[in-house]
Amino acid sequence: MTIEKLATIFPQPILFESRRRSIQRFLFVPQLSIKALWFPLLKRWVKDRKLKQGKRLTLAIDRTQWRDQNVFVISLIEDRRAIPIYWQLLSKRGCSNLGEQKALIRPVLQLFKGYKVLLLGDREFHSVRLANWLQSKQIGFVLRQKKGTYIRL
């Protein structure tokens, strides 16, 4: 939905342009961040599901091109469903790099501090440096490897 469509149905007895600007200002309020609104809801949802601290949570990371947006998302896997937890819009086309991957994962690790985390990733996340970083944070991981990858113990 666009801001213009919202302004059209917004029930304020003011000019259309004023409604549009009001909605724009509202959407840029710092209190409307993912961390401020969505994280407390997720934390409460996990608590209400009786997922006690120390229990393992399964997370999945993925990146997709949606229309003209490059969306990078981390999701909680629960009852064979993926619930988006945190996402970023990348300002470039193509794969994410290690810095972007850490920036996506860190806030979620803070959110679920005290839980054991298993992180799943597809072939885009086959980096040894990412695996080493996850291991240093004591995060379990399963990163799918490309077919021709040589693995040495």
**Strand-residue proportion:** 25-35%
Largest sheet: 5 strands, mixed
Mean pLDDT score: 84
Supply the number of helical segments: 5
Distance between the termini: 51 Å
Helix content: 25-40%
Strand segment count: 5
Q: Provide the structure class.
A: alpha/beta
Order of strands, main sheet, comes to 3-2-1-4-5
Write down the overall geometry. globular
The topology string of helices and strands comes to HHHEEEHEHE
Q: Which spans of ≥5 residues are poorly predicted at pLDDT below 50?
A: none
Round the Cα radius of gyration to an integer and report it: 19 Å
Describe the protein.
This protein has 153 residues and is α/β, with parallel strands linked by helices. It is 37% helix and 27% strand. Helix 1 crosses helix 2. The chain is globular, with a radius of gyration of 19 Å.
Quick take:
This protein is an alpha/beta fold. It has helices at residues 3-9, 16-27, 34-48, 98-111, 128-136, and strands at residues 56-66, 69-78, 81-90, 116-121, 140-143. 37% of the residues lie in helices and 27% in strands.
Summary tags:
153 residues, globular, alpha/beta, 5-stranded mixed β-sheet
Lay out the secondary structure.
Blueprint: H1 3-9, H2 16-27, H3 34-48, E1 56-66, E2 69-78, E3 81-90, H4 98-111, E4 116-121, H5 128-136, E5 140-143
Parallel strand pairs: 1-4, 4-5
Antiparallel strand pairs: 1-2, 2-3
Helix pairs in contact: 1-2
